[in-house]
Design goal:
The chain has 12 helices and 10 strands. The chain has 361 residues and is of the alpha+beta class. It has 2 domains: 3-89; 108-346, BirA Bifunctional Protein, domain 2 (2-Layer Sandwich), CATH 3.30.930. The structure holds 3,4-dihydroxyphenylalanine (DAH).
């Protein structure tokens, strides 16, 4: 190929490169010039058939052609890529005033029972109570006998207990009917002074609009050498004010009977119904929310504590009940029906963690 032909090939290729209007067209030009069967590649292959004395000069010329074309291709490619990006960006628009799409965190809901349990533990933790736990499947001893309800005690009948089949030694495990057995576990494990609450599931064979076979309680227990009934009243009043987020709460302590406390009381809370809304601390309606009392000397003896030295109080509070009252949920059965629409309506955002400082609800 003559020098003139080489020159015009170069002009032609550079022209084609300059004219390529997008990256695809540029790629076609590159293949036609430098591809396996491209014009420049063919010139390189022709090198072999030249007489040796011409090869060097020819090789240099073709190589420099190849370099110039390669550089021109790269420069144009960059330029086209830049315009392609700029064009794409000019067509894409983000409306930053649109609401942020809801992610899975915004979709999920915390069940009111979990939320209210967290509220309760937050309040008692701030008063210096520790959290204790016990299993749902309990021994007859922890659930009844140690709590001053020996076999044949009539109070056992009130509990509609779910029993397991008897074991080889004749003992029968059961689903705990209250959280009170955690008192026994706590006292057997830790020497007084003791200050615990124990939230959890409890089971009774009972079902109607206000009863479900599984529900939730929180147990409280304080044991030391000088705790008295006044402390119990103060703790429960402070708890109710904090939980219902009101300055004054109307409470009624009614004499009652539980085998594991002496004296025993039931506590009602005063409320007014205002259409669908419930106002706590006003009005003249009463709802029972808990049982409580001073721990019975027999219970202390049953866990090896000397009742002449140690004393304390205990209480058992229905979590589902006070959740219904605080958040105005009318039917207990809906709590456990697993209906997502209900959960969406009454549930709590996952990051709404109750704290006393930021407000419980
Ligand atoms: N365990 C009782 C129940 O489920 C509630 C209760 C009453 C618990 C008095 C107590 C208490 O700790 O002192 O009905």
């Amino acid at each position: 190929m003559s020098a003139l032909e080489l020159y015009s090939l170069k002009t032609e290729l550079l022209h084609a490169i300059a004219e390529a209007s997008d990256l695809d067209k540029l790629e076609e030009v590159r293949i036609a010039a430098l591809g396996k069967k491209g014009r420049i590649s063919e010139l390189m292959q022709a090198l072999g058939s030249l007489p040796p004395d011409e090869r060097k000069a020819y090789g240099q010329v073709v190589n420099s052609l190849k370099t110039s074309v390669g550089e021109a291709l790269e420069a144009r490619r960059r330029e086209l890529a830049r315009t392609a990006t700029a064009e794409k960006l000019s067509q894409e628009r983000a409306d930053v005033t649109l609401p942020v799409p809801e992610g899975p965190l915004a979709e999920g809901r915390i069940h009111p029972v979990s939320q209210v349990t967290d509220e309760i533990t937050e309040i008692f933790a701030a008063m210096g109570f520790a959290i204790a736990e016990g299993p749902d499947i309990e021994t007859d001893f922890n659930n009844f006998t140690a709590l001053n309800m020996p076999p044949e005690h009539p109070a056992r009948q009130d509990h509609d207990t779910f029993y397991f089949a008897p074991a080889a030694d004749g003992t029968r495990a059961l689903l705990r009917t209250h959280t009170s057995p955690v008192q026994i576990r706590a006292m057997l494990k830790t020497k007084p002074p003791l200050r615990i609450i124990a939230p959890g599931r409890v089971y009774r064979c009972d079902s109607d609009q206000t009863h479900t076979p599984m529900f939730h309680q929180v147990e409280g227990l304080v044991i030391d050498e000088e705790t008295h009934l006044g402390h119990l009243k103060w703790v429960l009043e402070e708890f109710c004010k904090a939980f219902f987020e009101i300055q004054e709460v109307k409470m009624r302590f009614r004499a009652s009977h539980f085998p594991f406390t002496e004296p025993s009381m039931e506590v009602d809370i005063g409320y007014a119904r205002d259409g669908d809304a419930i106002r706590i601390g006003e009005g003249d309606q009463w709802l029972e929310i808990l049982g409580c009392g001073m721990v019975h000397p027999n219970v202390l003896k049953n866990v090896g504590l000397d009742p002449d030295r140690y004393q304390g109080f205990a209480f058992g509070l229905g979590i589902d009940r006070i959740a219904m009252l605080k958040y105005g949920m009318p039917d207990l059965r809906a709590f456990f029906a697993g209906d997502l629409r209900w959960l969406k309506h009454y549930g709590f955002p996952p990051l709404a963690i109750p704290t006393l400082a930021a407000g419980l609800s």
